[in-house]
Structures are given as C-alpha cells and as structure tokens.
Amino acid sequence: QSAPTQPASVSGSPGQSITISCTGTSSDFGNYDFVSWYQQHPGKAPKLLIFGVNHRPSGVSHRFSGSRSGNTASLTISGLQAEDEADYYCCSYSLGRVFGGGTKVTVL
Amino acid sequence: QVQLVQSGAEVKKPGASVKVSCKASGYSFINNNIDWVRQAAGQGLEWIGWMSPKNGDTGYAQKFRGRATITRDISTSTAYLELNSLTSEDTAIYYCARYSNPVDFDTWGQGTQVTVSS
To answer: Taking CB atoms and an 8 Å limit, are B35 and A100 in contact across chains?
Structure first.
C-alpha cells in the first residue's frame, strides 16, 4: 500500500486555472471510482471537496472539479482566488484508505 | 448539525498509551463508519483505521495493526482511538472523520494534539 504521488506545490495567479495530479498504481485506483479530494487550511481540519472522482458535495464551489484517466486523478481549480491557498490531498482506496502526499497551492 | 467533537490535548511519555475520544451529534451514530487519520507537524495525512459503530467491526492500516484499537460506546455516541507503545514518531494531530457512503469523509473532528516526550 503506497501513497499516490502528488506534486509538492502548484501556483497560479488570481483568475487562472490550475490542476493538481494524483498518480497511483493500478492497485490504488484499479476498478474503483473511489477518489476524493480534501482541502486543508493551516491549523484547520481537512474539508471534503470532491468524492467519487468528480462529484461535489453540496456547498462546495463549482470552481472545483475532479477527473480521472487511468491511474491518474486530477483536481482542477478554476478562477483561482486568494482563499484557495491551502494544502490539497487526494485519497483513494487500496487495502484501506490511502492519502496522497499533499500539494501546497500558492496564489501569486 | 452534524458534529464530531474530540477530547483535549494529551502529553504522554514514550512507551505509554493514549486514548482519544470523538463524540458524535446531529445524526444517528450507528449509521456511519468512523475513521481515524493523523497528521504530524508539517506532514501529510495518514490513515489509521475505521470502525463500524453498528457492529463494532474494525480495520487498520498495516502500520498500525496490533498497536491501534478503535472502539465505541453507542450509549454516548462516542468513538475511541487507543494507541499503545507510543514513541516520539506518534506526536501528531489525530482526527476522527465520519464516512458517508458514497460521499466519503464529509465531517471531521477538530483534531486532538498528542505529544510524546520524555
């Protein structure tokens, strides 16, 4: 059970779109459409942004979207805002739950 | 509203055990699994295990098998994580999270700081 790989950091200017990748093995993503994404601001608990690869819970901005192609899941943030500056984690299922290493998003 | 409220910060010596609680409110406790996740300072999220409050079934990450125990008290809608044989590497914030099929972890506790120091 190894952690999916995420880039350590991604940055963008306000209004731009950015994409965070989450790459695993076939055993991480396999036959499961079971990828979720979490946002975490400093000193706060994680917050669910995306579940089931590309579904948003109620209350989450439409600026957040998810997708998956093969063994890589992606989170796209459109219309980047200052409040989006945070850490982002993907989460999948492989003999239990496994989180990616996390990506720090910086708004320039 | 749905809420998970965790117990307060703990300071333990190496080799000791710690038990963290997670009290649920605003929903029927037995209907949703509870998972535990931890985060060391400046590090990422690490999954520890899960529990079904309905029947007490549990599952653990391989790293924590034999050292972590997740239990519950249905009468108080509270889940517990106990971690034994603590070392400095267990110093972290411990979170409980509610699993809602298929929405995943939709509610998180506020986190409990556990510090292991001699």
So the answer is: no
Q: What share of chain B is helix, strand, coil (3-state, %, to 5)?
A: 10, 50, 40
Task: Specify the residue for token string 């038990």.
Answer: B19
Residue A99 to chain B, least CA–CA distance (Å): 6
Tell me the two tokens of residue A13.
Answer: 């200017």
- Asked if A45 lies within 8 A of B95 by C-beta distance, the reply is yes
Per-residue model confidence as pLDDT tens for chain A (108 residues): 678 999 999 999 999 999 999 998 877 766 567 899 999 999 999 999 999 999 999 999 999 999 998 889 999 999 999 999 999 999 998 778 899 999 999 999
Q: Does A82 touch chain B (CB under 8 A)?
A: no
Is A96 part of the contact surface with chain B (CB cutoff 8 Å)? yes
Chain A touched by B27 (CB under 8 Å):
no
Percent above pLDDT 90 for chain B: 97
- Is B8 a residue whose pLDDT tops 70? yes
Q: Using alpha carbons only, give the angle B60, B67, B111 rounded to the nearest 5 degrees.
A: 70
CA distance B118 to B107: 34
The token pair at B18 is: 């710690």
Q: Which regions of chain B does DSSP assign to beta strands (E)?
A: 3-6, 10-12, 18-25, 34-39, 46-51, 58-60, 68-73, 78-83, 92-100, 104-108, 112-116
